[in-house]
Amino acid sequence: MSFTTTLSTPNHLTHHHPHHTSHAPHHTQSLPMATIIHRHLAPLRHHHRLLTVAAAVRQPDTTLWTPTPLAAVKPAAESLFNVTIDVSEASDLASTYTVAGQYLQIRIPNVEKPAFLAIASPPVMAFTNGVFEFLVKSVAGSTAEVLCGLGKGDVVELSPVMGKGFNTDEISPAEKYQSVLIFATGSGISPIRSLIESGFSADKRSDVRLYYGARNLQRMAYQDRFKSWESSGVTIVPVLSQPDDSWAGETGYVQAAFARAKQLYAPDSTGAVLCGQKQMAEEVTSILVGNGVPNEKILKNF
After folding, report:
1. Domain stop point among 138, 158, 178
2. How does pLDDT run across 229-250, given as a tens digit for each residue?
3. Which domain covers residue 116, as residue numbers?
């Protein structure tokens, strides 16, 4: 640990006292370094211990949980499941879902840790069908794995809907933002489905592309929806990182496939939507910003 790091005053101690250090007695500078460090850190250690103890004592769950029954759990692809939850008797909860890209927490009885999940169905489905739909990746030992093993009628608890979702006002009107480039990997396609099926005037734009990455076709959910997505104005570019020999489409990673594509978009009339693997999001953002697309036109849901 460097002395510079050790002696820097934490922000929360200086934020309201910009001249904090000017009040320190000058003679402290002649003290041994170890003494200064000890004096500086001792009250912080004590303060930290108090906070730790307080946090351990004061941890009631203030989340408003709504019990809801499962309507269906069905395979969507390898390791992925479509989970449908009945919210027809939970109108207060259903009404909090207003923007594609929002998410919530799901809690399962006798399972300690809740899971964060983006809602895959568009908001209108909560009213027309009385359901929230999710695309859930079953990971060994996780809450998601337990959820994917449940069935119709099993009760789970939902938190209120959270997050700002995809702010499509940033890429509207369609006449001005003619290109919308969408990127998703794995279960990150979940809120993208909500976006596409909510509608963002894709048919009024000249170039709407979805780069959708998965390991192989067996791991690619929603293939049965591709035709309707295409008819709404979205061109789908599947990208497989480990395809079999019969695959003739794009291979590798989404960001590489996009980098290989001809950059035909005009930066000042282009928007983008990203969801999925962190490295993909960072690299795609870097490519877009490097080509002149403003950062605020690159939409994320977290």
Report:
1. 158
2. 999 999 999 999 999 999 999 9
3. 66-158
